[in-house]
Amino acid sequence: MSRSPSFSVKSELSVKADPDAMQRWVLAFCIIRFDLEQGQLIEECYPPGCLTQEEELEVAFSSFPDSVSQHQNRSSIHDCIFFFRFQRHKHSKQGNGTSSEISEIDDKETSSTPDEVKSIRRSRSTDISKSSKYLYGYVFNRQRHDERLKRGGEQKSVVILSHGPYYSVFRPLLQIMGPLYFDIGRKAIEHIAGYVSLWPSPVPGKLMELPIGNAMLKVNLPPAHSLPLESGISYEESASSMAPFLPSNPSVPQGLFHDSDIFGTFRGLLLQLWLLWELLLIGEPILIIAPTPPQCCEAVASLVSLVAPLLCSVDFRPYFTIHDPDFAQLNALQEGDKYPPMVLGVTNLFFLKALRYIPHIVSVGSPAPSSSRVTIASRSTGRIPAKQEGFGLQQLSLKKFSPSSLFNAVKLRRDGPLCLMTEHKEAIWSTYVATTKPDTSILNRLIDAGMSPRVEESMSVVNNEILRRHFLELTTNFLAPFGPYFRATTPSEGSSPYADPPPLPPFNADDFLMSLSARGVGKFLSKRMRSNWLDLYR
User: Bias regions of kind Basic and acidic residues — which residues (predicted)?
Assistant: First the structure.
């Protein structure tokens, strides 16, 4: 949805915003301007007072690209949409409800009428949203180049803050709200906030129809089992929050960011998707570097989606900057220190030096033709163990080989990630040896349609479905041996419904590995994994 609907700005037709109802989806709407003398400034924040001063600074710094777009004519406009995720500060002035307050609400709910219950639940969802551990910022950034302005242009960002990972909702919403704000100003915030207030509560795993002006957003929300418990998200009752071991309907999302563009993002590194899947599965720290915020966000989201239906418990940051409070701690790590499980998406090349001891670095995307970074397509195969090395596959054909590809592989390994300081390459630097073999039958099914952008987009949809279905099946089969540990014994007939439920079977890692080694991993995985597959489980 690239065009905004025809909104009426007449006061008698406007929808009044309800901040409490709005917070089921949105914590705040912010307008941030880049001032040449004072830096990033928050011009508007609705509703006011919902962020601490530290959070306002973090939102402001995360809402702009690290560099100005190179798409500039004498007078031009460049828009981009991306998102970031940051940890809320423990000393937030918002505070959480005490246990006695929550208990009091529960007592009230049991003795209230249905309408009163809805009001109480709405109040409680607002309190919970304030206590969420992470916040997501969804950004519409506009860079306007004009030689008549000081320093040749200006920047402004429209930001939606939410406690939910609902990129499939807020990306199309920003495509409406961003241009609308630059057309009519602050009234756009009031209109959008009013419509969001009318939305029903989020129902995980369901297709929701969300009215916005004359448009209707039809979006699938991620399922409950993919949402971290500490996220503070409050939603209406839905189906079981257990991750399904055998998904019955492939069209229903089974994890976060189910509509991310895996194929488009990792097109030059398709052979390495199975390596990346394993790294994410075992919680290895990964640094993803891309030329632009939208590209690094899409890469992080695509990686997170690979492990569905498993809950992605690593700390992922779609767009990470040096202004993040966590950067100082990461920057202090020395060689031999262990990085926490995380996936960081960055565009600032300074991170290559600051986080030079991070064990896995992935370079994706392509810079603009007029960018200062030079694009060099790298086609490489083969590996030299025990040293960090670079890999790439520019074309889908797995049979092509040339001396130049071997030369590029050796050159990437020798130069290391710092070669990105002078020229951009799609590559991976890692010493990890994957257990899972790339599935060439899946790669051969992918369609490479380098024709018009319209055909390219439709082919990407098909390719993404093929890849996502394969990795969903791969993850589901990997999880299958753990299934018996999540099946409780059935209570005996006539037992009291008030008694504690039967306990889950005890889990012992050594016993599990010994049993798994004896019975094998199953046909599906045995065909796709090397003989040391037990090491991955270990």
Answer: 115-124
